[in-house]
Amino acid sequence: MPGGKGAGFCYGRAVGRPREPLAVEVLTPLLATWRATRVREWSQARGDYYRLWQLLDAIAERFRGRVTVYIVDPVSLPGVLRITRHRIRGFPAFVIGGREKYTGWDLEELARRIERRLAED
Prior knowledge:
Elements: E1 9-10, E2 13-14, E3 22-27, H1 39-62, E4 67-72, H2 77-86, E5 93-96, E6 100-103, H3 107-120
Parallel strand pairs: 3-4
Antiparallel strand pairs: 1-2, 3-5, 5-6
């Protein structure tokens, strides 16, 4: 075979095939499961969701077609498994490419980590 063993493949992926988008999983308590007992708590939750929505919108715009964002409820079984596996202690938490985690609100730091994972693949 010309080119030796594995010619036509690059790290197990066929050359010329489009790459799958990088999965970014967002673990955050869903508004439907939020049981705020005070108006201030409810107001804070709404503010956090608006902030998260803006962050996800910016990520979707910046990485259009290269990243797929999944929202995972941390009280669901898949959410509990991810929290345990990645030792997540705060929200919002982002699992990038199934390997790296980031907890926080900093758009630029999250974007740097996503860029680094995209460059590795």
